[in-house]
Write a structure and sequence with these properties.
27% strand; 14 strands; Elongation Factor Tu (Ef-tu), domain 3; six-stranded antiparallel β-barrel; four-stranded antiparallel β-sheet
């Protein structure tokens, strides 16, 4: 971490004569009145601090995959969508293909079983009372939808002519869309009633239920595999940088390594969250406050100067090399490429 010299401007201001004896002060003041106007200056406190980032982005991927190539090095600047890592996703892609194939077979087997049941004992299933009732409810909803659809077309014409408001037209459109959902629901009810009748009429009901549960499980497992890729934040087979202005802090893996869900691949410092952390002597802490101006000079180049403000003052004092100090945090107003953690 880069060390800096921190100069904090105190809340009070003093004259050049502060620290002199009374007579000497009076003499100095008189001399200043003759030679030049009084010039107040701000009292300051100096402290050493280190540049840090408040945010560190850890890269972790929970996938059965391995690293094909690392594209960056420690200390390298990176930006939004820069490629960091190329992964080999063959293992998880093979798992997805295998699961898709197994799911397709399971669905075909269930379909075949349902057809066999229908041929054996459900020739007249549409004549069952619950099926007739469900189909009647579906048809009724369809008729209501058709009427609402005609009404909406008429209201569209009226809207163009200024006969109704946009809100009234929008409300009618929402009602029509809701009725469409009701139709889909009624269709599901019809199919559900048919399936229930088939199951109740057939000794293979348990087999059907087992197969349906198996299909649901396989679908869930397949979706979990796909979600792992989607939620990992990778693009294709690339891990890309999500930060606009970062620097690689540490790389923990190399090409050929298998990913570990509990281990960071690398960490990236967010340079847009640079701060200075410093310890101020307890004797001076009462004279500074949040918002106090601070001047920052890097020890590596004392000619450079950055402005900042006190953004946090700890409520707890600590011991540092035998001295009682209070940790403070400084937000940097403007940062260039020289100032790094």
């Amino acid at each position: 971490m880069k060390k800096v010299l921190l100069t904090i401007c105190l809340a009070t201001i003093i004259l050049f004569t502060v620290g002199c004896e009374k007579k000497e002060a009076e003499k100095a003041i008189a001399q200043q009145e003759q030679e030049q106007p009084k010039a107040p200056i701000q009292q300051t406190v100096q402290a050493f601090g280190v540049v840090k980032t408040k945010q560190i982005k850890g890269i972790m991927v929970d996938l059965p995959a391995s690293i094909e190539k690392v594209h960056v090095q420690e200390g390298q600047r990176v930006g939004k969508d820069d490629v960091l890592i190329t992964l080999s996703l063959k293992e998880i892609e093979d798992q997805i293909k295998e699961k898709e194939y197994s799911l397709e077979i399971a669905e075909l087997e269930l379909q075949k079983l349902l057809e066999e049941i229908c041929d054996k004992s459900n020739e007249n299933i549409d004549d069952e009372p619950e099926i007739i009732e469900a189909k009647y409810s579906l048809r009724k909803t369809q008729i209501e939808y058709e009427k609402l659809e005609r009404d909406l077309k008429n209201k569209e014409t009226m809207l163009r002519k200024g006969g109704i408001s946009q809100n009234e037209f929008d409300d009618s459109k929402v009602i029509l869309e809701q009725k469409q959902k009701e139709i889909e629901y009624e269709r599901i009810k019809v199919e559900d009633a048919k399936n229930k009748r088939r199951i109740s009429n057939n000794k293979d009901a348990l087999d059907i239920k087992i197969r349906e549960k198996n299909i649901a499980l396989q679908k869930s497992q397949l979706q979990t595999l796909k979600d792992k890729i989607a939620e990992s934040g990778i693009k294709g087979n690339k891990i890309v940088c999500a930060l606009s202005n970062g620097v690689i802090e540490k790389i923990n893996n190399a090409a050929g390594d298998r990913l570990n869900a509990e281990k960071q691949i690398m960490s990236i410092l967010d340079l847009d969250t640079l701060i200075v952390q410093a310890n101020v002597a307890e004797d001076f802490i009462k004279d500074i406050k949040v918002g106090s101006k601070a001047i920052i000079n890097p020890l590596a180049n004392s000619d450079k100067e950055y402005e900042g403000k006190i953004s946090r003052i700890s409520n707890i004092a600590v011991q540092d090399n035998g001295e009682t100090v209070v940790p403070v945090e400084i937000t940097i107003t403007e940062v260039d490429d020289f100032l790094l953690p």
